[in-house]
Amino acid sequence: MLDKLISHLRTSWEDLVFFAVLAASSALIMFQVTSLFVAPIADSYLWWGDESWLMTEFRTQILMGVFRHPYALSSSLAHGSGIVFGNMWLTAALYGIPAALAKSSDVVMIGRTVTALLSVTLAFVLYEVIRKLTGERLLALFGVLLLITSRSFLLTSHSARYDILSALAILAGVFWLLRLRGAMKARASFLTGLLVAGGLLISVHVLLALGLAALATVFVRSQAKLRNVMLFVAGAAAFGIVLFLVSLAQSESTLGTASGAFTLNIRDVPALRLLSRSVQIANILQRWSTATSFALGYVVVIAIALALVVMRIIRQRGRLSIPAWGWLIAILLVSWLEFESAAPTSYLIYILPVLSVAIVLTIQAVSSKAVYSVLVVILSIALIVCSFHDSWQSRWNGMRLSRANDDAIAAACAEIEQDTSHPLVLAFNPAVHRLMTDTNIRLMTTQFVEFPESNTPVDSVLRKEHVRYVLLYRSALKQDYMREVQPIREAAQRMGTLVWERSTAIMTDIGRSYFAPSFSGYDTLQVYRIRD
Q: How deeply is 521 buried, as exposed, middle or buried, from its count of CB atoms within 10 A (0-12, 13-18, 19+)?
């Protein structure tokens, strides 16, 4: 009997390991979901308050056909966001339709629910992609585990933004390019350009990630290279023309908003200063800092994979051949490195699923099944333990911040609602998403400073829009944490009277980490009443 048991264990050890890792991974995702609405806090500083902003625009796009922000008074965003940013129709359908159907609900909570569903979809798709490429389910599960244990995934899967959807589209595009077989035909080249440009319907980040890799694929796999490259460009141009015509029908005729939002978004693109050594070094250092802060597991596993590659080269006496998938993924990483701004930490998620594919394919190529199986088990245990700790810590910190912020906003609103005239309130994040559901006030956001519709001074804007109250935060760690803070604070002090203040709580995540064991300093929430 014992011999039979030992024999069975020897033949079924892979099943036991796989289902054990699968159970732990499933438990991790379910635990992460428990902090979906609190970590990070809604309209977190991590995203510069993009959640209410984007969800409002997506809802408006579905209801009115134009991607604009109705609360951004005196801002160009109130009229539209241009061709590039105003045509994310697939994203708007996923986020805007639920928000439109539940108009009176908190749009950030709705958006986070949609993102959570997309995050689970991303995990399943990543598993299937790696399994089809490697033929190994344990390696496929490890690739998924790398992703879901990263802090980047934890935070972006809890945000009402399109980052997870963009990562899913990029992964699908890479898999499609990897599965192409044989010489590219003329029609396939044209359709490739059309589909890649169609990524704009999700976000511009999909086009930026896949454009160069797709072009290289068409060039390498074509016999008539010049003809097919021109057809690829023609396909992309055809989609651009259609998009331009649709935009004209929406009264959108510029790349960005009238105030130059497109310029504001591209000015930090490293590729525009490719020959500047200081810019490129700063770009790499910032990416490294983001990776070590939000995807440390990837950094460690990549180092191990590189060590295995070096050992393989030594054994083969210096011979090394890079497979086609290696070149394709390398080109995509260069695109991400040079064409995406390094500042937003949320952009890291765009390449993590693709990195999972690259890591797993590398490990399989340079080591035996016995070696990588043991390695995967050891690394999986370490990743799961660390991620449970991160998830618990971020959940606790998020609940603490959310509770303190909600209490402070409720008290501030109680002060404002003594004015029964349905006043207009100019509010900073993270208060915006709560005030959007308050029917006793009218809301105005602060985008008119960064995206103004004219050069009107702040004081004049407040007078023109008849702003009655200004609700603003003073951070304990970063006084002027956004461009809008200083000019609006100074205008409120000149034109208004401080009628309410709370400075005995930690209300924001400005300058703070959700994974820190404790916070320091107290934030301040203030209400100014603008004088007649």
A: exposed
pTM over 0.90: yes
**Cis status, amide bond into 423, omega within 30 of 0:** no
* Residue 265 pLDDT > 80: no
107-146 tens-digit pLDDT: 999 999 999 999 999 999 999 999 999 999 999 999 999 9
Q: How far is the C-alpha of 113 from the C-alpha of 157, rounded, in Å?
A: 9
Encoded amino acid at 269, one letter? V
Distance of alpha carbon 5 from alpha carbon 167, whole angstroms:
44
At 181, phi and psi to the nearest 5?
-125, 145
Strands across the sheet containing 523-530:
442-444, 424-427, 469-474, 523-530, 496-505
Phi and psi based region of residue 457 (left: phi greater than 0; alpha: psi -120 to 50; beta: remaining): beta
Burial of 296 by CB count in 10 Å (0-12 exposed, 13-18 middle, 19+ buried)? middle
In the predicted structure, residue 260 carries a pLDDT above the cut 80: no
Write the secondary structure of 74-104 as one string of H (helix), E (strand) and C (coil): CEHHHCCCHHHHCCCHHHHHHHHHHHHHCCC
Name 186's Cβ contacts closer than 8 Å, sequence gap at least 6: 224, 227, 228, 231
Quote the CA–CA distance of 282 and 116 in Å, as a whole number: 33
Whole-number pLDDT of residue 294: 95
- Burial of 217-232, coded b for 16+ CB within 10 Å and e otherwise, reads bbeebbeeeeebbebb
**What is the average per-residue pLDDT within 84-105?**
89
Residues in Cβ contact with 294 at an 8 Å cutoff, skipping those fewer than 6 apart: 150, 151, 152, 155, 345, 348
Is 2 buried (19+), middle (13-18) or exposed (0-12) by CB count in 10 A? Answer: exposed
DSSP symbols for 261-287 = HHHHHHTT-GGGGTT-HHHHHHHHHHH
